[in-house]
Design goal:
Layout (H helix, E strand, L loop, with lengths): L2 H5 L8 H5 L8 H8 L3 H7 L13 H11 L11 E6 L2 H10 L10 E7 L10 H25 L3 E5 L4 H8 L4 E9 L13 H4 L4
Antiparallel strand pairs: 1-2, 2-4, 3-4
The structure holds flavin mononucleotide (FMN).
Length: 205
């Protein structure tokens, strides 16, 4: 896979490399190996929730890849009924810990809040259905971001235990949050959790 393939969705310019890649002398072979030696099935199989992160920032170019990946997710009617808040302010992060039932790991190096935006979904359906669509849009985008982050050597934790009103206040937004994705470099690598037998999961009717 060429990293530029996915980024071209976000940056449709000829200067894409100037924007998102580290300068040549800063290039880390390891970073690119993380991507190039990965396939989607390995990413899915090896993803594991992580709540302990190194105290080091995520590179801008990796963030750009994650945002672009989130934006590849399917959305209802193609209307992209979601918004992403990239939280950099330390005080806002602290408020989000509070809004997430005091889960301390919400204060992670990279914090993304995925929100619903049903007003973007221009479909002639009842409001309740549009709400549901935008919830699914935001959820899918977060899931895509989570997988992309794993492919980039990052680890993450999905936070669903949130007080919606407190998150809205912390972000100063009217958009309803669906999840918070907390990301960073893991303190130690964890093995994926065992799952139930596929035969129990699949119901043929
Ligand atoms: C909808 C949803 C809500 C979740 N909420 C939380 C949460 O609030 N706090 C937390 O620590 N983990 C949360 N998780 C992470 C799960 O605990 C984790 O995905 C699960 O234990 C399976 O582990 P795995 O991701 O390593 O496969 C949530 C996951 C999902 C999908």
């Amino acid at each position: 896979m060429q990293p530029s393939d996915i980024l071209s969705r976000m940056y449709q310019t000829d200067t894409i490399h100037d924007k998102v890649y580290p300068k040549l002398e800063e290039e880390s072979k390891q970073d690119f190996d993380d991507i190039l030696q990965t396939n989607i099935f390995n990413v899915m199989l090896n993803r594991r929730s992580q709540r302990k992160f190194e105290d080091r920032p995520v590179e801008d170019w990796k963030m750009d890849m994650i945002f672009a990946a989130a934006d590849t997710a399917p959305t209802a009617g193609g209307f992209q009924g979601f918004e992403i808040y990239h939280v950099t302010d330390a005080q806002v992060k602290t408020k989000l810990v509070e809004a997430a039932n005091k889960q301390p790991y919400v204060n992670s190096p990279l914090v993304l809040v995925f929100c619903m935006n049903p007003s973007r979904v221009k479909l002639n359906f009842p409001q309740a259905l549009l709400q549901k669509f935008s919830l699914q849009d935001a959820t899918l985008a977060a899931a895509y971001a989570q997988l992309a982050a794993h492919a980039l050597g990052l680890r993450s934790i999905w936070i669903g235990m949130i007080d919606e009103e407190k998150v809205k206040q912390a972000l100063s937004t009217e958009y309803v949050p669906s999840s918070i994705l907390c990301l960073g470099y893991p303190l130690k690598l964890l093995h994926p959790k065992p799952k139930r037998n596929l035969k129990e999961l699949i119901h043929e009717v």
